[in-house]
From TrEMBL:
Name listed for the protein in its UniProt record: Cytochrome P450
Species annotation: Amycolatopsis tolypomycina
Keyword presence, Phosphoprotein: no
Pathway entry: Antibiotic biosynthesis; vancomycin biosynthesis
Organism taxonomic ancestry: Bacteria, Bacillati, Actinomycetota, Actinomycetes, Pseudonocardiales
Keywords in alphabetical order: Heme, Iron, Metal-binding, Monooxygenase, Oxidoreductase
Amino acid sequence: MSLPAFPAPRTGCPFDPAPAYTEVREGPGIVEAGMWNGTTAWVVTRYDDVRAILADRRFSADGTRPGFLQFAPGVNPQVSTFIRMDDPEHARLRRMLARKFTVRSAESMRPEIQRITDEHVDRLLETGPPADLVTGLALPVPSLVISRLLGVPFDEAEFFQASTRKIMSWASSGEEAMGALVELGTYLSGLADRKAADPGDDVISALVTEYESTGELTRQQLVLMAVLLLIAGHETTAGTIALGIAALTRHPGQLAALRADPSLVPGAVEEVLRYASVVQSGLSRIVTEEVEICGRRLKEGDNVILYLPAANRDEKVYPNAAAFDIHREGPKHLGFGFGSHQCLGMSLARVEIQVAIRTVVQRIPTLAPAKPLQDLPFRHEMFVYGLHELPITW
Ligand code: HEM
């Protein structure tokens, strides 16, 4: 019997998870799926199970374990850094970046993020209506913020958008994705040399001067960490901004409430993170000893995909979960994961999304969609969901 292929298509409302996984969540909770290369994985769909697995050491994130899930041809789980490691090595490397990713550091970047966002909104207002909110705001702003954080000169930031896109697409061949990764790595190593000679107040300078110089970090690890930050922080934030604004324009009452009362913005952003759940590749883990989930016995070496879009719509946790509701209260969503690997950049992402949504809502008071929902190009083929284009008018 052939297994259903992962990922199942999002054939329903484009904001909703693939209907097949909603059915699994309401039914058995877990389903075995076939991957592109003939391997299999268990897709876990319920909020409580996903959260429990992310806090359970019997599920490893170590990409060097034999048989660790390979999502797509170009994605080699062995060529990665701490996101694909277990503690203590994971914690040792993650700690080197922690200082730059606290709530306080993220807040200290808010004025700069506001400035970058305002510049992009100025340009949208000068050239439109209509305008594309993805190329005009959602993609360039997070890219510039990470570039600034890493110490990448602004005029070199364009290059990242192209490279991350090649690395992050199910549509890229193995060679294309690997080629883009190598190109990005070579660039970042060159940048680390420049920072060693002339350090600044940025992440790459800190890694070079504090850790590479003492032998605690190899150049290869440094480059992989920088690549991780670029990849993890760019399209995720962009996709969330685009889907958030798209959802708001489809809910004019909530849009008006947000405009009237900006103190609602942080709560609205949490709802966008839950509702959009952009990490549609799910999170992957490998089983290290026999364990039972939803009545199924998983054995050592089995791969597990924690499908966040379905978990964040779990009716047992969020009443009327399919509704977009900026006033929603309740448990924390799993959009940033959970446990020791929970998103390192979540405070920064929150500031970026809050600033983007607040600024667009305030500065474009007559904001409206320029195309019907069914004509929007959703990023079905990418690991990170979102929109290729979001035409707006005012
Ligand atoms: C809306 C935006 C974002 C979303 C939805 C998101 C989501 C996630 C999720 C679900 C994980 C957990 C991965 C796992 O357990 O396997 C994660 C990890 C991570 N994220 Fe984010 N992320 C976002 C933005 C960012 C930003 C802005 C950065 C940094 C610039 C970042 C850096 C990281 C890093 C370094 C990890 C690995 C943490 C670890 O393994 O200890 N992310 N992210």
